[in-house]
Structures are given as C-alpha cells and as structure tokens.
Design brief:
This protein is mainly β. The protein folds into two domains: 137 residues, no CATH class; 123 residues, no CATH class. Helix content is 9%, strand content 53%. A hairpin with a 4-residue loop joins strand 7 and strand 8. The longest helix is centred in the first third of the chain and has 16 residues. The radius of gyration is 20 Å and the shape is globular.
Length: 272
C-alpha cells in the first residue's frame, strides 16, 4: 500500500496516511513546500497548490516517471534503500474553490515503479499540472520523460534515460550508462571525480546551449559539437584533424565516452 501525506499552502490539511517526522524536520519541510508552491503559478487566474508525499519501500527494477504535459522532474540520489516521491499538484481556474476542486480530482499512482498523475479534462480556462521531486537509491535505474518541463538528476550512478520536448536538462555527479535528449532546451552537465564511472554519457539538444563543467585531471573521451553556434573551451585540448565545430579528444589519457552536443546553440566547456 502506498502511504501519502498531503500539504497545502502553509500547512498540513489532509492525509491518507501521515508519515512521522521529527518536529524540526517537519517544520523545514513545510517551509520548503510553501516555497515550492509559490513557484507553481504566476498567472492572473485563481490557483491552488498542494504537495503530496509518499515512500516506496519495494524498489522496482526501473523507476519510470512521466511528467506529462507540464511537469518538471528533479531526482536526487541518497544512501537510503527506499524511494521518496513528492508531487506538487497545482491548478488554475476562475475561482479558488474551483481550483481546489480540480486539485482534489488529480490522482497519483506509483504501482510497479511507474509514477503517473491523472485528473480532470483540461481546457483554456481550467488546467492542472504536477511536478515531481524524488529521492532515490544511487544505483536505481531511471526513466524520466516530460513534454513541457525541465529534468534534473544529481548523485545517481545507474542506467538513466531522459527525454524532454520543451525543457532543459540539468545533470550533476552522475555515473553509469546515461542517455538524455531534449528538443528545445539547454543542457548543463557537471562531472565529478577523476573519470566517468560506467559505460558513458550521451546527452543532446536540438535547439539550446550546452555548458559542460569538467574537474581538473578528469579522464574521459570527450565528444562535443554544434552545427550552428560557437564553441568555447576554457582549457587546451589536443584535436586530431581539422578544427571545426565538432571536437573529439581524450582528456587525462582517455576513458569512457562523454558526449554532449547541440545542433543549434553555443557550447562552453569549463574546467572547475
């Protein structure tokens, strides 16, 4: 059974099952929820937001999160053996009461590790959306997809598949076999350690800039490039063949492939 706690506005308003937290931690979480909800909507309609939380003790082979039409996804690795799922459910309508009613009609499921939201029909005057924050074991495989929203992943080393249509990708301190793609959005990658731990990293955007930060002394085979945009590398590299907008070079003696590319956008590679 999935246990959910629900927060709305600046306090706890309803619960299917309340997870016990120390008082100080509960207060910090409530403040974080207020800030997160404050970011949910800035339009002129009435709106309502609540944060729902659950813990998955039984780990799936792959955690599959669908951000759907307008949801961002943020995943952070931790050293615990369970998954914490936090969902920010928000709606906009003509009245506060109607916005609350729409939020109440949104359901969230996590069966089999497939994290989804479903709710009332949307139209121009009434709409809802769900964004996700998840804490996961560092070795848990991930499949994350959204249409209009960003995806960020930090501190995970596993098989990771990411896809966004209109949204940025933000990746830091990763390892394993990572594949990411966005059509319209920037890509930011921050590597850590002395070299890539795993099969490699391949991330691409069609329309967006790329920023890649690499530790001093990092070992990898770097591939980066753009069709329409500038390339700036903050440290010297050795490139075989003609120097153009496509760069393939070994860093620190070489290693697993790190490929970060764009078709239409600038590229900046920085040493940190």
């Amino acid at each position: 059974m999935t246990l959910w706690s629900v927060r709305s506005g600046c306090g706890l308003v309803a619960a299917v099952a309340l997870l016990t937290l120390p008082a100080a931690a509960s207060a910090r979480q409530a403040g974080s929820d207020d800030d997160w909800c404050a970011q949910a909507y800035s339009g002129r309609q009435a709106s309502h937001c609540e944060v729902r939380e659950s813990t998955l003790a039984a780990l799936p082979d792959v955690l599959d999160v669908d951000g759907a039409a307008n949801g961002s996804i943020a995943v952070e690795g931790w050293d615990r053996g369970d998954v914490q799922v936090r969902a920010r459910v928000a709606a906009a309508a003509d009245t506060d009461a109607r916005a609350r009613e729409i939020v109440a009609g949104v359901t969230i499921t996590t069966e089999g590790g497939r994290v989804r939201a479903d709710g009332p029909a949307r139209d121009r005057d009434e709409h809802w959306w769900v964004s996700w924050r998840l804490s996961v074991p560092r070795a848990l495989a991930l499949r994350l997809e959204t249409t209009n929203g960003s995806i960020s992943v930090t501190g995970v080393r596993s098989r990771i598949d990411l896809e966004a249509t209109n949204g940025s990708l933000r990746l830091a301190d990763l390892g394993g076999d990572v594949h990411g793609r966005t059509r319209n959005g920037s890509v930011r990658v921050e590597l850590s350690g002395k070299g890539w731990d795993g099969a490699g990293l391949t991330v691409e955007t069609t329309n967006g800039s790329v920023r890649l930060r690499i530790p001093d002394g990092y070992a990898a085979h770097l591939e980066t490039g753009t069709r329409n945009g500038s390339v700036h590398i903050d440290f010297p590299v050795t490139v075989q063949g003609r120097l153009n907008r496509d760069i393939s070079t070994d860093l620190g003696g070489g290693g697993a492939p790190v490929r970060v590319t764009t078709r239409n956008g600038s590229i900046r590679v920085e040493r940190r």
